[in-house]
Amino acid sequence: MKDNASLFQKKFQSLEEFADYISGILGGPVTIEDAGHRLLAYSTHSDYSDEARVSTIMSRRVPENVISRLWKDGVIPALHKQVDPVVIPRIKDIGLGNRMAIAIRRKQEIMGYIWVIEGNSPFSTVQEELLKSAADKAAKELQQRHMQNKQQEKSKEEFFWRLLTDDIKDLPAITKQFERWHGKAPGRSLIVVLESEEAIDDIMFRSIMYLARGSQKIKLWLQTRTADQVIMLVEPSADSSRYTEKHFMDELLQLLKERFSSRQFIGSGREVSLTHIKKSYEEAQMVIRMQRRLTWTRQHLYTFEQLGYLKYLEAAAENEASHVLPHPVINKLIVYDNKNNTDLLNTLYVFLQSVSVNKAAEHMHIHANTMAYRIKRIEEITEMNTKNPHEQLSLLMEFTLREYISS
């Protein structure tokens, strides 16, 4: 071990020189990544590579399908749990050749990763020990960069809160600050808020940041956190669909569900200019509030645009809360259900949410003919036209308002 450590005592002018040095010792192409799988450096003197490495170098980050597969196969969890290198056999369908990897650590914090493609022969235990020594040296090499990043992150966080609170409205000044940090300003920007029922500790926060920075559906520009929320300024990817941020949020929730026992809520505001970040932030917070009070929204309503009529619910509730009057249709069904021990009121609510007899029947686990009969009976009792869009929306809002007020 002492001999191995001595091999890495020399000073390196750059991470690229360091990567070339590791490659020369271990006999295979090397890449060094940060904790978010963004490329920091790679060895240049090699006669062979693989598709995953080439894609990483071209895009300056590990492809998302490679990261997802390595999580699924337990490779990245193993890197996070153990201090020894992980040997990864070839995974042909993602273009990954035989390789060895290790996490670069500073105490309990993951600072990055070193990946080495297998050379002419399988990795030996000696090479594994050499890679451990290389990771120790890499931690020292990244330490200064890490401290500089910490200082910059603090400045970014203060700047972000100024945007969130409308404390700065000067677009040229905002743009100039982004250019100073990133070389350019976001072309599109919106706020994503993630809220946890339990306090967000360092472990959860690092997991959220890891997933956000590794996503290729969005670009994370700024982030901050409170006791129970993580607030992010993101830009949907240029070649994205309309709801790319929704797909990102869906994936983020699923991955957090697999790793933490507490429930999380997530929502985004609309795309806005950099001088109107506060508006997007307020909209994202509204999505979170709706998810908390209307349980049926949690599975599919993540964006402010998706709220539809729900965005008017809070204002309506303020006017209705002190004097909720019985709606004629709802009142008739309550009386009928109580007298006949039926479930027509709930049937109507499910139907209005589903806008389809078949979907409503599926949701209530009854036959479509039974649902059709119930709808017909509701029309007879209440004299409403369930096919009239105006009556549908009016009643749906009434149902939702009452659920919101009573929650």
In brief:
This protein is α+β, with helices and mostly antiparallel strands and 407 residues long. The protein has 16 helices and nine strands.
Tell me the layout of helices and strands:
Layout: H1 2-6, H2 15-26, E1 30-34, E2 39-42, H3 51-59, H4 64-72, H5 75-81, E3 86-88, E4 99-106, E5 109-117, H6 125-164, H7 171-182, E6 190-196, H8 202-214, E7 218-225, E8 229-236, H9 244-259, E9 264-268, H10 277-293, H11 313-320, H12 328-340, H13 344-354, H14 357-364, H15 368-382, H16 389-406
Antiparallel strand pairs: 1-2, 1-5, 3-4, 4-5, 6-8, 6-9, 7-8
Description:
This is DNA-binding PucR family transcriptional regulator. InterPro entries: CdaR-like_regulators (IPR051448), CdaR_GGDEF (IPR041522), PucR_C-HTH_dom (IPR025736), PucR_C-HTH_sf (IPR042070). One of its GO terms (molecular function) is DNA binding. This protein is of the alpha+beta class. It has three domains: 2-149, GAF domain (Beta-Lactamase, 2-Layer Sandwich), CATH 3.30.450.40; 165-317, 2-Layer Sandwich (Alpha-Beta Plaits), CATH 3.30.70.270; 324-406, PucR C-terminal helix-turn-helix domain (Arc Repressor Mutant, subunit A), CATH 1.10.10. It contains 16 helices and nine strands. The strands form two sheets. It has a five-stranded antiparallel beta sheet with strand order 2-1-5-4-3, with helices on both faces. β7 (218-225) and β8 form a beta hairpin. The N and C termini lie far apart (62 Å).
